[in-house]
Request: fold
Amino acid sequence: MQIGIIGLPLSGKTTIFNALTRAGRPTGVGGAAKLEVFTAAVNVPDPRVDTLSKMFNPRKTIYAQVRYSDISGSEREISAQGFSGQLLNTLATMDALALVLRAFDDDTVPHPDGSVDPERDLRKLESEFILTDLVTVERRLEKLQEGIKKGARDRDLLQRELPLFEQIKAALEAERPVRELDFTDEQVRALRGYGLITLKPALIIVNEGETPWPTSITSPHKRTDVVKMKGKIEAELAELPADEAAAYLADFGIDEPGLIKAIRSSYKLLGLQSFFTVGEDEVRAWTVRAGATALECAGAVHTDIMKGFIRAETVSYDDLTRLGSLAAARDKGRLRLEGKEYVAHDGDIMHFRHSG
Ligand SMILES: Nc1nc2c(ncn2[C@@H]2O[C@H](COP(=O)(O)OP(=O)(O)OP(=O)(O)O)[C@@H](O)[C@H]2O)c(=O)[nH]1
Ligand SMILES: [Mg+2]
Reply:
């Protein structure tokens, strides 16, 4: 899972990136001359993995990972001339976007728009994204119409795509991001290659600085979420060992580190869940889409396991931790043998029996 951090100049993108990844990148540059992307991977904190690791005492404990990219130098493009192909290509590779909004007042940090106004900044960002998508969609519509007129060989397919892109165009013209529309699976597949920015789930990060900033920004849609962070403080705390940092949170009025809030929210936005594999060698978290079948889970581990799939020995996290061991879970009949079509639950512990 890769999340692109984007926002207006000096909104605190790099500060938030540091708070999320402990990357310690220099901040406060403002208006980098060219597009630069820094990516860092972080372990997804999951107390269930910690508990399983204590239980099995494995040689290795492997957490799921999320990658964040600090996309800097995009501001001129956001503010003015439209997006470059390079920026569009970068955004296209992201699974979701984190939009950082400045909601801190600080005389030492110049404000390009004169005052702090996260609502205005969000509208500005969204309308730039919408305009960019509109260009993409209009270009596609022209191609579709041309292909249909010329009697192209895939004419039927083009005919089916036409109303889809017309619907999207109408939404964009009404200033609605594409993520707010509902699509069938087939439509989602059809849209995949176009890199529509406003189709990507959006995690809005309100960077509220040291004091809470009242804001009316809410999550209007299932593919949008809002998280508040105290960027500067959290970036500083990220430099400390985890237990020390935890001790300071309450002092700063932080109920939960942004790192955890952002990751939880990203899983929800992207419709993801976890399952675990356990053993003496390794306890490991895996990420799959919510509603994944046992066969898809097997595929996440290895394609060979998927191909030779026989059964998935499955026990829920709650049952396993309540009963204390796999043997006890088996005795109590809580360790089930599931087939390919079984729909995995978040937190299932799975062991795949396979041939080959
Ligand atoms: N007081 C305060 N200052 C902050 C906060 N977050 C960021 N800043 C400051 O704002 C300035 C810009 O922060 P950056 O994280 O570099 O912002 P950016 O969006 O990455 O900036 P560019 O990439 O240069 O456009 C720095 O001086 C930060 O220390 C905050 O929560 N409170
Ligand atoms: Mg920056």
Q: What stands out?
A: The radius of gyration is 23 Å.
